[in-house]
Amino acid sequence: MNTVSETGYGRISVLIPFIAAIGALGSALNLATGAYDTSLLQAISFLIQDDGSNAAFSVRELRLPRVLCAFGVGAALALSGALIQVITRNPLGDPGLTGVTGGAALGVAVCMTAITVSPSVMIVFGIAGGLMAAFMTMLIAGNTRNRPIKLILAGVAVSVFCIAATSTLMILSKSSLQTLYFWMIGGFTNRGWPEFSLFWPWALVGALVSLAVCPILSYLKFDDASAASMGLNAGRWRVIAGLASVVLAAASVAVAGPIGFIGFVTPHLSSLLLGRQQSKMGLWLVVSALVGGGVVAWSDALVRLVFEGRVPAGILITIVGGCLFLLMARRLGQVAR
Amino acid sequence: MLGLVRWFLLILLLVLSCLLSLRFGSVGTDWQDVWRLFSGTGGAVTDIIREYRLPRTAAAIVIGVYLSLSGLIFQTVLRNPLADPTLFGVSGGASLAVVIAMGVAITFNPSETGLKAASSYLSLEWIPLIALFGGLSATGLIFLMSWSRGFSAIRLILMGVILASVLQALVMAMVVGLSEARTELAILWLAGSLYARDFSHIIPALPWGAAGLLLVFLMLPQLSALRLDALTARSVGVSVGMVSPVLLVIAACFAASAVSIAGPVGFVGLIVPHISRLIGSYQMKDQILTNMVVGATLVIVGDTVGRTVLPPLEIPVGIVTSLMGAPVFALLIYIGMRRNSYA
Fold first, then answer.
1. How many domains are contained in chain A?
2. Residue B229 three-state SS
């Protein structure tokens, strides 16, 4: 239309604050709902100043970490999905569909049942499980450049196996089926400061690595030969970005359980939002992360408002994300051949 | 001669697995107790076998037969070795329909709780019908969504997998949305378990299976022609456009009936047809019969393993079959990659 949106900076300077504001509103809503009635403003003022009341305690010690977990997990999963989509050149990439979250869940379950419940060890096991699952998926799928859907089929096989194995472990360790279901669907019930303090260093490292390699990522979209002609060892950078995406996904699983479809949907959503600007890799990653965090924060707020917290947020995300996937898979027709 | 030996071995395996399934469980019994079941004498221990293990074994046989037949028909009609009823959303749709029905039944009769409420107000005869309805709708939806100038089975599977996880999430929302004390049955049933199944669960699903089996045998020539590509099938006088949908509906009905008994039991329909081809049955009739025997054996073994690993804990048979089936699925994909087939 006008020159400003032609260059795109006008659009971006509106878009990013807008997305951030939506995410912040979802988080604030999440902060304000709960057993103690607090208004939005009250909740925010409790953040700044602790007046020692029960309401302030519940906002600062119970709701704030939960909100941070939700936003962080959403952002991490979105980044992870975006990285997978770039390095496999596959628009259907998603940490859940490629088996990474399943493997991470299995790793966490192995650690929980057989070794220790110490969270810091758990996350390492999660990352190891995620890596193993990613490796298995790659091995089964082989070269997927021409048939991206094969990656997903291989991922489904790996993730079905990992989920069944996780269920077996949890049953054998005498958890009830209800606990199992709650854990397998993913959510933020009872997540507190210990979980968040465990999560953020890994997520931060993953995010920083992915932002650091993003100039190179934009070359990885082309084939390896032209990447090589620019003096890049495509394989090496792909491994580095892949590691970052596994770390991001595994850290999320260790905190929230395997939440589906965020990693697939948000990168596409941010491409839609960015329009022609989506070719700017760094921008795309940042917007994806913001959208992912916002979506998960809103989902958690909604399940708390509607179901009074009895339903894990993962349910809502899976339903909405899956429906979006079905719609988009139709549109990615030439891909999903 | 070779055929006879193979059949003898297959039947022997089936009988053996039945006996093992009757013999082992969380309560210690020995072979004599199993024998007393057949000779008609016996006390409390034999009663356990008769009341709890016998119906369970029967249910395993029925489920194995239904699921493997369903998988065989799907694989033959779609000419795709990866086809499996659980991957086409049959189980998800059936689960959702049954859980909604249970929810409605509980809402209108809020006085009772737990197992009693669901089974006394939602009569068991209705469950197969409801499951059938849900399974068929989900399958129809998937076929509708992945239609574009013909079915690519790989796209069917992608759509099926995604829809299945959406349906599963909806089921979860239903289960958790109903109050917690009353979700026992739904949760148990959703895990694909044979726990506490008795003949009242099995019998309502039998007529459907018998009718389906009759139809399959009536359509045997068409089914075997469909193994070839559509053009060849047409040239030997099979109207593919008419026969395929009918067969697919029958397959979905088989799967839904199985789901109505035990909940989703994954991958049996995927692996059993491959096993029966591996052990050398190529003729369609032969394949169907081998399938039934192998399917029954597989589910019985899965159930027995699941409940004897660490008694009294129990791994639902659906999880055991997924553990066995997923590697086979992976292997099939891997081999398919090599041959670059599965268009």
1. 1
2. coil
Question: Which member of A152, A167, A325 has the closest CB to residue B319?
Answer: A167
Q: Are A257 and A313 in contact (CB under 8 A)?
A: no
Q: Domain range spanning residue A143?
A: 68-331
Q: Domain residue spans in chain B? A: 54-338
Work out the burial of residue A48: count CB atoms within 10 Å of its CB; fewer than 13 is exposed, 13-18 middle, 19 or more buried: exposed
d(CA B331, CA B211): 34
Nearest to A181 by CA among B25, B103, B319, B324: B319
Q: How many CB atoms lie within 10 A of CB A327?
A: 11
Question: In A, which residues are within 8 Å of B337 by CB distance?
Answer: 140-143, 150
What residues of chain B lie within 8 A of the CB of A330, using their CB? 145
Separation CA B303–CA B325 (nearest Å)? 14
Looking up residue A95, the CATH number of its domain turns out to be 1.10.3470.10
Name chain A contacts of B188, Cβ cutoff 8 Å.
177
Please indicate, yes or no, if residue A44 is contained in any of the structural domains: no
| In-domain check, residue A14 | no
What ipTM describes this predicted complex? Answer: 0.79
CB contact under 8 A, A315 and B172: yes
Task: Return the structure tokens found at B306.
Answer: 């699941």
B325: which chain A residues are within 8 Å (Cβ-Cβ)? 160
Contact in structure between A179 and A53 (CB atoms under 8 Å): no
- Residue B189: what pLDDT? 62
Do residue B323 and residue A168 have CB atoms under 8 angstroms apart?
yes
pLDDT at B309 exceeding the cut of 50: yes
Region A282-295: what's the mean pLDDT? 88
Nearest CA in chain B to A166: B319
Q: Say yes or no for a CB contact (<8 Å) between B188 and A177.
A: yes
CB B263 within 8 Å of CB B191:
yes
- CA neighbor of A252 nearest in space, from A113, A79, A83: A79
CB atoms near residue A196 (< 10 Å): 19
Give the C-alpha separation, B300 to A223, whole Å: 50
Residues B54-338, CATH architecture: Orthogonal Bundle (1.10)
Cα separations in angstroms, B169 against A99, A125, B165, B339:
18, 27, 6, 36
Residue A237 counted as domain residue: yes
Over residues B113-124, the pLDDT tens digits come to 544 544 555 666
